């Protein structure tokens, strides 16, 4: 059903010219005097010194005054040579006991702009809903769901995303950066180095990751606990790509079909105005009960199969003939074309109720990209370039990669990649009785369906207080926080995780 890793697809736009720096961009280190060696042997201009600007945001009647810092940290190999440079964007406020939260998006190949300007940073714009146009001028406003009121935020762009760059060729970059295990190690070290550089090693530390950033989360947490001596107090995984194995063996195992049916049913309930935790409860119960056992029976019980096809038709609102010819097993891309076929549109795998016109409606298979994915590249790139180079004043000379297909193409999965991160999640929770984990999903997400996390967490031993690891669902899709009510609910749940008021 799914052969490649999904991109993290949260979008945010920043209105050009919105912020006039309250303090001129300054530096806390001298600019590099030598040029950096490029990955193909050419010379790259050195990154500028870290730049800062003071801004404010008003949230729930409270004015937050904070400092934005854009800068870079080196990645060095075992011989001490700088092989890459990681760019970060940090939002910090005055206070002696403020936690620090590190944020990563996914892909592999996504920068942190989506969590930064779209989800939890102090500024955001409305996005990710039906009818958005990438050519419309964005309107910036203070983010009512920002986490900055109770934690400092450090957004990290992995090598090859944002302005972060490898200083070695593609072959060496794949070896050092673009594979499952080394990705965890160098990003963990970047977090460690940021803490040391900023004198924050004794702060309470948290992690938030979205999509493949959710895959990274448990692995980074366990690696930092056991290898770097840094313990996270809490982890939030937003729409995580937690267990790739859940989509394997779809010819025999019922699991791949169990993971997507509830999200398809949720989308149907939403179109009817009936989506809620109460209406979803029987859907989940049916999926993990009668639906699973019927799929396992196969052709040995024709009566059960007939009943299952009728039930799936009822849950999804799809054409009964389509459901019958699918055997009650709803493949994601086939569903996304079928559900809006009569309108000549396609649904998005990141939120199946967000659509776009299908430019090739008579082709046997989808010939165009995802409706959400196609619309986010231009506005996010323009927004972040303006924010970094003009608002903050980090005068970098280089291309900004909001979403890098090149990194995704070069990516190498190590042998244990298909095992996901559930093993490391269990180990991290066992290692630290104080660690708390929130796994947050949108009901309608078919890229990283919520049912995968529900099934994975239900198989975990309690290890004391079972509520230390929770799965929560919210109306919406992969970017469920683009909806004000869902964002407010997520923020309330995260505050509980942090013990914030």
TrEMBL record:
Residues 1-24 form the signal peptide. This is Carboxypeptidase-like protein. It comes from the Bacteria. Pfam families: Peptidase_S10 (PF00450). Keywords: Carboxypeptidase, Glycoprotein, Hydrolase, Protease, Signal. Gene3D superfamilies: alpha/beta hydrolase. One of its GO terms (molecular function) is serine-type carboxypeptidase activity. PANTHER family: RETINOID-INDUCIBLE SERINE CARBOXYPEPTIDASE, SERINE PROTEASE FAMILY S10 SERINE CARBOXYPEPTIDASE. One of its GO terms (biological process) is proteolysis. InterPro entries: AB_hydrolase_fold, Peptidase_S10.
